[in-house]
Amino acid sequence: MEPAQPADRVPADQTPPDGQPPVTSGRPAPATPGVPAGEPALVEPATGPDGADGGAAAAEVGTGERAAPPARAEPAKSERSPKDMAISLLVLLVPIALLLAFYRGFLGGDQPTTVDPAPAIGSARAANAFPVAEPRGLGDDWQTVNATFRTVEDGATLRIGYLTPEGRGLQIVQSSVPAERLLPAELTDQGQPQGQTDLDGRTWQRYTARGNEQALVLLEPNRTVIVVGDARDNELRAAAGALG
C-alpha cells in the first residue's frame, strides 16, 4: 500500500487543465535581504567588465534607491589683489595732495603769521618802566611773529619774537625785572656766562641757554636786554645792533 501524498503538493510533472495557471509547489520563494515581501528586487548589471561600478550597483540592489550625487564644492571667494588695493589708496591720496598744494601755493600755508609790534612797544613806553628801544634796521626778511608787554609784581617786560632770514627763532627781551631773577627765567638755571663781546660801543655778555640756544645779555642800571634763540651768532649780533 503506497503512502498518501500531502494535499498541498502537486507532482512536478502534473499539467494543469487548460486556462488554469501553472501549479507550483507550496513553498514560497526565498526572500531577498532588505526587500519587503512581495516586491521585486532591483538588480542592475555592472557597467564595465572590470566591475568599476559594481559597488554602487550592489548598494542599489539592497535598497532599491539610487545614491545621491556628491555635492559640488563652492568656488573660493576672490580676494582683492595688491594692484586693486594700490589703486584704491591712490584714489584717496590724490584729492588730499591737491588740497595740500592749494593750501600751500595759494593760501600761504607755509608762511608764518606775522604781527605788528607797534602796539606792544607803545604800551611799554606808556608804562615808563624802563627805557624802551625799538629794533630798527632789520630787513623785510626778519618776520615779527609775536610782540607782548606785561607788567608783573617786580617789574615789566617787553618781548618781541622774530623768524630770522635763515628760518630760526630769536627773541629780544627788554625788562625792568632784576637780572638775578630774569636771567634764570629766560635762560634756565643752566645758563652760564661765556665771556664778553663788544657791539656798537656796548659790552654784551655771552650766555648759554636752553637746548641749543645761545644769548647776548646787556646789563644796565634800569633795564636788562636779552637777545636769545637758536639763531647763529651773526643773526644774534644783528638783532642786538638793531637796538641802537
TrEMBL record:
Residues 45-73 have a biased composition (Low complexity). It comes from the Bacteria. The chain crosses the membrane at residues 86-106. Keywords: Membrane, Transmembrane, Transmembrane helix. It comes from Micromonospora endolithica. This is DUF4245 domain-containing protein. Residues 1-81 are annotated as: Disordered.
